Amino acid sequence: MKTIGLIGGMSWESTISYYKIINEEVKNRLGGLHSAKIILHSVEFDEIERCQASGDWEKSGRILGTAAQGLEAAGADFILICTNTMHKVAPQIASMIQVPVIHIADSTADMLEKCEIQKVGLLGTKYTMTQDFYKQKLIDRGIDVMIPAETDIDVINHVIFHELCVGEIKTESREKFKDIIDRLKAQGAKGVILGCTEIGLLIQQADSSLPVFDTTLIHAKQAVEIALGIKKM
Fold it and tell me: How far apart are CA 71 and CA 45, in angstroms?
């Protein structure tokens, strides 16, 4: 079994999901007392968020790259960044280490292709929804990516940072997300990407009028397939 390196803490709420999903998946596949080999570096999210807000992506990349170097030195065979937004600096992180970084958008594109979804709505932080670092990965795979209206982007971003990242799950916010998904469906989306690792804490398949693609679940399960040699890096 290969050792999985996790860069977590962005937020720690969703990092718990990664740890749980990975270990449950290993147990389901191998049975008995089997669990995953994991090394976790959990960063201080306030420092990262301040870099995001100020646009200092280079500094945040150095912080996460240093974390990745520590994971590599500790024996990680590959790295997962446990957040969608910080994949903006995935190339910078990858340049600082020798082991692979498994990109969350590539994992998601694999699943969309498997499910034959070619037009999809994307929910996430304002950075993920409006910038190209994530969307372009999907577009390059022939997937049409739709984002919500500007007012809906503001709602989603607020809920992520001011509720989900601090562990608040509100019914009224779930209803807002459901309405946003309905609007994307009306515009032709055939699925919806939960493109922030916290959104899965709020929205499940039962809450959505579209097939849900939870990036945390997809990313974590693909990590297990790589760790067990089922999928190549």
Answer: 18
The full DSSP string for 121-179 is EEES-HHHHHSHHHHHHHHTTT-EEE---HHHHHHHHHHHHHTGGGT---HHHHHHHHH
DSSP 89: G
Residue 233 has pLDDT above 90, yes or no: no
Q: Which residues are catalytic?
A: 83, 196
Is the Cβ–Cβ distance between 129 and 192 less than 8 Å?
Answer: no
Letter for the amino acid at 101? V
- pLDDT tens digit sequence for 71-110: 999 999 999 999 999 999 999 999 999 999 999 999 999 9
C-beta of residue 117 within 8 angstroms of C-beta of residue 211:
yes
**Residue 38 β-bridge partners:** 4
Tokens of 225: 């397939």
What residue type is assigned to position 61 of the chain? G
- CA separation, residue 104 to residues 101, 138, 175 (Å): 9, 11, 26
Residue type, 115: C
Separation CA 69–CA 88 (nearest Å): 18
| Domains located in the chain, CATH noted | 4-103+217-227 (3.40.50.1860), 105-214 (3.40.50.1860)
pLDDT tier for residue 152 given thresholds of 50, 70 and 90: very high
Per DSSP, the three-state class of 110 is helix
Q: Which DSSP state fits 213?
A: E
